[in-house]
Design brief:
The protein has 439 residues and is mainly β. Helices cover 4% and strands 46% of the residues. The strands form 7 sheets. Strands 1, 2, 3, 4, 5, 6, 7, 8 and 9 form a 9-stranded antiparallel sheet that branches. Strands 19, 20, 21, 25, 27 and 29 form a 6-stranded antiparallel sheet that branches. The protein has a 4-stranded antiparallel sheet with strand order 14-13-16-17, with no helix packed on it. Strand 4 and strand 5 (114-119) form a beta hairpin. The N and C termini lie far apart (85 Å). Keywords: Signal.
């Protein structure tokens, strides 16, 4: 009879432990931007050994961040607090302190999608028999890849208990995603400069006036028009005011015979982030021909900036269901030909869509690349490979050549590709489109 009673007590302890994993330890919101408490329906499954049926209840969750106004590339720390778990301790058995280790997910939406894995310490207050479980917090980080409003919602969570046995109780959001608890607004670390200029003429005699037109400047800004000799500004300058739509049209008298281009910029000095150009401009040599001499001229015709690629499809390596990992391959080589002449460089960027498959998708932010670029001998410019990292929906630079006194040449660009496939992505074929833009 004594042995029978001991078995019943052992089973009761296991049951109490199993349900404890639907709750946990430390209460307290971290410093930073606090989120809003939200309620969501939760389905918790205790371990089978506990002999307890699934628990359908309401969880109150809160998501806070350490930085609600990050820039693209910043790392944001996320804290997911289960303020009120879905169930109480259903047994009369008190549970000891520090037996519960929580893990979970925070769902991202809006400008950036995906999930953030969060974990908590093995720490909880004792739970009295039939008492309410205390709240617990879990933390994790994610890197901002896209500008805009990014929403954060509490997601699934699990508590691992180390009391008598090692047990897990997973709790899932019945209707995902849960309500939004937190929103961060990300800004572009390197905002795109869309300012552009065009000239009424590409050539003129010394002292001629050339019309300079611009778009996408700051409305109402004072814009300086200036001649360039290579990378050096000449003494030929003028100012104009941008209209309410950011456009302007002004005149610049060009006298310096060494002029190779014209720029326009906001502020007291040239700033590539607030300027446009150089637009190629040549001052004609009007020096009189001496008696008994003949002036010989020729013309070098400017070409275009173009690219071609060795193919339009890439088959990445397969990964196993349940394991996932890196699906790798190589970008088809891209050849860039810059035959324009003049001082302007170029930039080759790429962005990718989500990878869609059989009723599921792999987020675009899972694709990364390692760019490489080679310059053909004799080219005036030198190609610079972009940084290794995430491509994503917002895109990244594959390669570029800087502005210079004389630019141009031929370049070969390629990259190693790696798609981080989540472990339990449904089997099947997934496809995304990588678009390259040369400008």
């Amino acid at each position: 009879m004594g042995s029978h009673n001991r078995r019943r007590r052992w089973a009761s302890l296991l049951a109490g432990t199993a349900l404890a994993v639907t709750a946990g330890g430390a209460l307290a919101c971290p410093a930073g931007a606090a989120g809003t408490d939200v309620d969501f329906a939760t389905h918790c499954i205790p371990p089978a050994i506990a002999g307890i049926p699934p628990i359908d209840g309401t969880t109150t969750g809160n998501v806070s961040v350490d930085n609600a106004s990050p820039k693209v590339g910043d790392t944001v720390t996320v804290t997911y607090t289960v303020v009120k778990p879905a169930a109480n301790n259903p047994t009369a058995i008190a549970l000891p302190a520090d037996i519960m280790t929580p893990t979970g997910k925070v769902t991202l939406g809006g400008a950036q999608t995906g999930s953030v894995t969060v974990t908590g310490p093995k720490k909880n207050a004792p739970v009295p028999g039939n008492g309410a479980f205390p709240s617990f917090s879990m933390t994790g980080t994610f890197t901002v890849t896209s500008p805009g409003a990014i929403t954060l919602s509490p997601g699934d969570y699990n508590i691992h208990t180390s009391y008598i046995l090692e047990l897990d109780t997973p709790c899932t959001v019945i209707t995902p995603p849960a309500p939004v608890s937190q929103t961060v607004t990300a800004t572009d670390a390197n905002p795109t400069n869309n300012r552009a200029i065009s000239l009424g003429s590409a050539t003129g005699n010394p002292g001629d006036s050339v019309t300079v037109s611009g778009t996408d400047f700051t409305p109402g800004a004072t814009v300086t028009l200036a001649g360039r000799s290579g990378t050096t500004q000449t003494a030929d300058t003028a100012t104009v005011t941008a209209a309410g739509d950011g456009a302007f049209s002004g005149s610049l008298v060009v006298s310096d015979k060494t002029t190779t281009g014209i720029v326009a910029y906001e502020g007291s000095a040239w700033n590539a982030d607030k300027g446009a150009g150089p637009a190629a401009y040549v001052v004609n040599d009007t020096t009189p021909v001496p008696d008994g001499s003949q002036k010989l001229t020729t013309t070098v015709k400017a070409g275009t900036l173009s690219m071609s690629q060795a193919g339009d499809s890439v088959a990445l390596s397969a990964v196993d269901f349940g394991r996932g990992g890196a699906s790798t391959g190589a970008l088809n080589a891209v050849t860039v030909k810059d035959y324009r002449g003049g001082p302007a460089g170029w930039s080759l960027t790429g962005k990718v869509t989500d990878f869609t498959g059989p009723g599921a998708k792999i987020d675009a932010g899972k694709l990364s690349w390692s760019p490489a670029c080679a310059t053909k001998a004799g080219s005036p410019s030198t190609c610079q490979a972009g940084s290794a990292g995430t491509v994503g929906l917002s895109g990244a630079t594959l390669a570029a050549a800087p502005d210079g006194t004389v630019t141009g040449g031929e370049f070969t660009v390629d990259a190693g590709l790696s798609l981080d496939v989540p472990a339990f992505t449904p089997p099947g074929s997934y496809a995304g489109v990588l678009t390259l833009t040369l400008s």
